[in-house]
Design goal:
This protein has 262 residues and is α/β, with parallel strands linked by helices. The protein contains eleven helices and ten strands. Helix 4 runs antiparallel to helix 5, helix 5 (116-137) runs parallel beside helix 11 and helix 6 crosses helix 11.
């Protein structure tokens, strides 16, 4: 990560939906001059000028907003960050892959924007809320197997920070290491894991994901979770965006695991 002069107020281009949510949570939304096309939360973020795309933003379009600082995040924006730096934009890229690295990115944003107290307050709130979920989850009768799918064609299991969230919520995540990038899976792997709960968290689909695209695959209809009707659709922004709303994602997973055991 590159570091820049710390200023109390600057023109920010937030090209990451997760960073946009963090900036709003820190009260720094007035400094955002533009975002990427997927920054849609909170509601007020929709009123900020959006640039087309997420990975291939045109530098000339960005330059029109004269940003003093540009934020990008996650592995899918690594090339974008490099191209923006080559075009002489001051770009900070967060390679967030775990809850720990998320916490560190929030601290870094707080430092850059001279709002360290707000950043520490946000971190404390997130940790307290996640600890509350974890305390409740510890009372569940057992840890059920959870398969969370980030993409459907080809099927890809959610990695990065998601295994952390599943553990906090009281589940046992499909075998993928915390911090490991989401990867393609086979029916054989999923069948061997034998998930109790399947959660559809397809990137960009939100609650509109059609679960039949999963349950209708050859062989998948025979999975126990499918046969028992334990296939859920979650707003993917609650799990795929490394930001404050991962708390809500953990709560949603816990609620399903609780319902299945009571």
């Amino acid at each position: 990560m590159q570091w820049f002069c710390i200023l109390a107020h600057m023109r920010i281009a937030s090209l990451s939906p997760a960073v946009t949510e963090i900036l709003f949570a820190l009260g720094a939304q007035e400094q955002i001059v533009c975002t990427d096309q997927f920054s849609n939360f909170p509601e007020a973020a929709k009123d900020i000028p959006h640039l087309r795309d997420h990975q291939n933003i045109i530098s000339e379009d960005l330059a029109a907003f004269a940003p003093e600082l540009v934020f990008t995040s996650t592995v899918i924006q690594e090339k974008l960050a490099a191209s923006l730096r080559a075009a002489n934009f001051s770009c900070v890229h967060f390679d967030t892959r775990t809850m720990h690295s998320l916490y560190e990115s929030i601290r870094h944003i707080g430092l850059l924007l001279s709002c360290e107290p707000e950043a520490e307050s946000l971190l404390l709130s997130m940790r307290q809320q996640l600890n509350d979920v974890q305390r409740k989850a510890a009372l569940l009768p057992s840890r059920l197997n959870v398969y969370i799918e980030e993409w459907h064609d080809p099927p890809m299991v959610s990695g990065n920070w998601v295994p952390d969230i599943v553990h906090i919520a009281g589940g046992k995540q499909f075998p993928i290491t915390v911090g490991e990038l989401s990867r393609e899976v086979t029916l054989e792997e999923v069948r061997e894991f034998d998930p109790d709960l399947i959660v559809i968290s397809w990137c960009g689909a939100g609650l509109l994901a059609d679960s039949e695209l999963l349950t209708g695959r050859d062989g998948w209809e025979e999975l126990r979770a499918v046969e028992e009707g334990n296939v859920k659709v979650i707003d993917d922004s609650l799990l795929n965006r490394p930001g404050p709303r991962l708390v809500e994602g953990a709560r949603r997973l816990y609620s399903w695991l609780f319902e299945m055991q009571h």
